[in-house]
Input
Amino acid sequence: MAWRIVTGSISHETNCFSPILTGIKQFMERDMAEGERILTRAKGTKTALGGFIDWAAETGSELIPTVSASATPSGIVERAAYETIKAKLLDGIRQAMPRVDGVLLALHGAMVVDGIPDAEGDILQAVRSLVGPDVPIAATLDFHANLTDAMVQTADGLFGYNTYPHVDGWERALEAGRFLERLLKKEIRPVSVMVKPPIAPAVVTARTGRGPIKDLMEAAFRWEKEPGVLNVSVYGGFVYSDIHDAGLAFLVTTDGDADLARSIAWDLAKSAWNMRERFVADMMSPDEAVLYAMKAERGPVVLADVADNTGAGASGDGTEILRALLRHGAQDAVVITMPDKDAVQEAFRVGVGGQFDYPVGGKFDDKHGAPVRLRGRVKLLSDGTYVNRGPMSTGAKGRMGKTAVVVASGVEVILNEYRFQPLDPECARSVGIDPAHRKIVVVKSSVHYRAAYEPIAAEIIEVDGPGLASPNLDRFDFKHIRRPIYPLDREFEWG
Output
């Protein structure tokens, strides 16, 4: 049987410590589309929307697109921008009525709007009010979602990414679609239970390939094999959102058995609490990391600037590792990337082959190091467009904005207009730089880069530079997160 399913996506990961407010302009820079254009762009991509499209084709269902809006992680979302985007979603649903059989949404789960700390809960409640209590709603959520009661109680099913780096958005979307299909066929009666232990890990300590989250994910997968269990999701949360509900969460959905769901969720939460001390990062300083990489017998040695991860709301224009590279005379090194519109404009002014002498980076705020005077030669100019070829968002287009490569002694710096997370090496290859053939590669990312860089890196070093994604949470002035919570608080008991 074919159904009429409304779909859309609104996504932002909000770092409330960032001074960069998120308005319509920030959404336009990254992604803002309406109507059929959404399906045209997402078809064939390994994204959540791509998964919804493939599920609709699988079932012969009609997918009705509304809006797709995403901004690079940054500070609080302006209320006017949020209301504008939400209105596009709701208007699209109204136009599809009266026959809407179901709703499939690709959300994030850590968006904070001025005056609305739980934006996804607000979105889901608005959709529920519009379609009524009998139309099923399912949504995918990012692994870093800060799960709330409003989200859980409003949606029929929530499907969190099982991977960080997030390489399974397409798979989770298919799972959500098939769950919706079973609901429409009245094959299941889902009931969900959430348990949140008082743990709020920094993003760099919560990757799924190793460490405590890997163990918790494996336990969740084992539970999903039990009869009557429909879904078990582990959410790392996003501590930098600084809302009451930020942090680790476990959501278990069963077929009508609330007691089973509650038992599994509590089992996972207690396991997490018992391994809480493993949520601690061990890193090198910028100078230590650069000197170590310079002495390495082979490369590339990837220096991950984890605290300056734009994917977690940092500025992306941190300068301390670049400063260390220049100070120590590093050779065959590349910095991917440095968002600085003024510096890009200067590079375009002097042109390819021209001498570049200009302060770069450290301009969005005072949290990521002071500007560095970069003296060198402009090697290349580009429009900054590329296509992801790695495991994350495969096939999706990326936009760096106007981009310039400046060579300063033995260091290449990719300067670009837009803040974005350079998780795919293709952004560097698009400007003539293959990271696999450099000795030292600096990447502004916490974990996502690992999906594409681990196969080519001789070694990866996490660097303890300054920035708004620092795993050292004592550097932040938290005001709204529930307390006590580990690791901000260490001496308390729970469970």
Q: What stands out?
A: The mean pLDDT is 96. The longest helix spans residues 79-96. Residues 286-472 form one domain.
